[in-house]
Task: inverse folding
């Protein structure tokens, strides 16, 4: 976890408009980073609502939101998408105006997804080090936190949770079916 940014340090946050990425924006702003959002349209089923949420979060914090679109060969389904976080990180790397600073992603503990693990981050950072000569770090401030820890952090920092969107099915949330919405229901029930 990075603290106290050096002068003119920049953090690009992969901003989906969900709770985790929105909390990530708050985290890096609080640490003194010049912060920008990065939204990637990869054909996700919840695209319309995700981009609306990402735009609302960026506007709330007064940060730029860089939007990129990638075309794939087949329709994406809800739930686990193999290679998604690796794709998002490498896609953002291709589009960043400079390969220095932090590229942040709001992954956290408590999931079974391989691309939310310390092992995954270590392997991706090795690639980034090769491409950027160690000048661009993958930021994962919540890697060891649970979803509940992020929720509590977001509430304590005034993250506008009402603007976030996380349903993997692209429906009204909580839909009651997808993992993200089941997490959301549990979070609301715990407060």
Result:
């Amino acid at each position: 976890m990075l603290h106290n940014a050096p002068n003119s340090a920049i953090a690009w946050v992969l901003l989906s408009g969900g709770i985790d990425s929105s909390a990530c924006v708050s985290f890096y702003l609080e640490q003194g980073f010049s912060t920008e959002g990065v939204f990637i349209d990869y054909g996700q089923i919840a695209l319309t609502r995700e981009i609306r949420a990402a735009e609302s979060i960026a506007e709330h914090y007064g940060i730029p939101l860089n939007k990129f679109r990638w075309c794939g060969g087949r329709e994406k389904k809800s739930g686990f998408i193999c290679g998604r976080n690796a794709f998002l990180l490498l896609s953002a790397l291709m589009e960043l105006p400079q390969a220095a600073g932090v590229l942040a992603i709001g992954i956290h503990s408590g999931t079974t997804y391989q691309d939310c693990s310390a092992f995954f981050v270590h392997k991706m950072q090795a690639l980034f080090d090769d491409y950027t000569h160690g000048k661009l770090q993958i930021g994962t401030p919540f890697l060891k936190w649970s979803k509940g820890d992020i929720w509590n952090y977001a509430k304590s920092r005034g993250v506008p949770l009402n603007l976030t969107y996380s349903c993997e099915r692209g429906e009204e949330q909580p839909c009651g079916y997808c993992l993200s919405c089941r997490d959301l229901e549990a979070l609301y029930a715990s407060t």
Notes: The chain has a mean pLDDT of 90. Residues 47-61 form the longest helix (15 residues). The first strand starts at residue 10 and ends at 14.
